[in-house]
Amino acid sequence: MESLNTILLHPDRRIGADMERWRKAGGGQALARAAVDPAAVREAIREADLRGLGGSGFPVWRKWDAVAAESPKPDKYLVVNGNEDEPGTYKDRLLLEETPHQVIEGALVAALATGANRVVFYVNPDLALSLAALKTAIELWQASELLDLASTALGRPLELTLLPGSGHYIGGEETAAMEWIEGRFPFPRGKPPYPAQVGVHGCPTLINNVETLAQVSHIVAHGAEWFRSLGKAPGTGTKLYSLSGDVLYPAVYELPMGTTLRELIFVHGGGLLSGKPLKAVFTGGPSCTLLAPVDLDVALDFDSLRARGGSLGTGAMIVISEGTGIVKRVAEYMRFFAHSSCGQCMSCKTGTATMSLLLDRIDTGRGTAADLATLENLCAMLPGTGRCHLITGVVQLLDSSFRHFKHEYRQALR
Ligand SMILES: Cc1cc2nc3c(=O)[nH]c(=O)nc-3n(C[C@H](O)[C@H](O)[C@H](O)COP(=O)(O)O)c2cc1C
């Protein structure tokens, strides 16, 4: 049995694109099982309570069952989402660079479990090392009998394609990714119809994050019970947390899902680099929420954070210390989101631009009480008004900064 807290980042697997070494370490076993009984794979994923690790925490089995229930039209797609552009998030690139075969195996297991015959690896174009490792690894798979085994089990040829994304943050949204794959600018589509029914080129499409798929082969190889036991209930399995900001050891940590913020920062991260007291943590990337020192003992899993009005998102944790202005940081992130909005939805286009303008005004001492009131009104009005989740996530950030640090906004007013 492998070391408990490093399923994905186990040293045996951090070997780049070396396929022989990966197979010697047990690679390929899960695919062989999936080839025999794809329905049992879906059941194992359900029992394991694997969640979407791209940010939503959506139960993976639900999407898989929905895609499996559709007939090919004439194809079925699986998109491996490696767009990873959320500030502070750098886990998928690590998996792709250092252990691309387990991502490919997980994707092929998912393809067999759902009947997908076209697998598209969709990767942020700025991640040159990830792209290079994945390209080599895909070529090795294309020459390997493992791919033939999977194609035979599926009953048709499995096609693997590597596609660099557009370089846009919004391109990571699942329907935007599909637009790009079809050759258009990555504007998110309205839902429904959902990708499971009408996805790439009108075909049923499953889209999962790189980390989600990397977990799959381990669940299939070792069982759902084993996977559940790795997490701290209600969390199951492990999670890659990208720790950055004012910490001694910024890194990607693979830890039990549900590890506390305190353990992550002070045990693994070595505490604060500046030696100052902790002030706040942007959790899940800035499009999620801000936690304060009172939240240090909260478990970092989807359900525990949601119960606290927070969000795990991608598992990015950006630590800031006393002395850092919250208004300035939130204003900086808002500028990023205003720039990233695709502009299709008026509420997102004007909402992010207006919030950015007002935050900059407050941050530079020119804001008024009316500006703050407008921001509060926008927080109440905007959630759920966009085609995609962008505007809702952005409001979560602002709203949670109000929850803990409203006094800083008031102090900054003219
Ligand atoms: C603005 C925006 C950007 C996103 N970027 C990414 C991304 O870079 N990678 C990713 O896996 N999911 C991203 N998502 C989430 C995807 O829409 C989708 O939920 C995810 O790829 C599904 O995979 P999962 O269920 O395995 O998490 C983004 C969502 C939004 C709204």
Describe what you observe in this structure.
The longest helix has 23 residues. The protein has three domains: 212 residues, Rossmann fold; 84 residues, Ubiquitin-like (UB roll) (Roll), CATH 3.10.20.600; 86 residues, de novo design (two linked rop proteins) (Up-down Bundle), CATH 1.20.1440. The mean pLDDT is 96. With 414 residues, the protein is an alpha/beta fold. A hairpin with a 5-residue loop joins β7 and β8. The radius of gyration is 21 Å and the shape is globular. 47% of the residues lie in helices and 13% in strands. The strands form two sheets. The chain has a five-stranded mixed sheet, with helices on both faces. Strands 3-2-1-4 form a four-stranded parallel sheet, with helices on both faces. α14 runs antiparallel to α15 and α15 runs antiparallel to α16. It is built from 17 helices and nine strands. Bound molecules: flavin mononucleotide. The site of flavin mononucleotide has 21 residues, from β4.
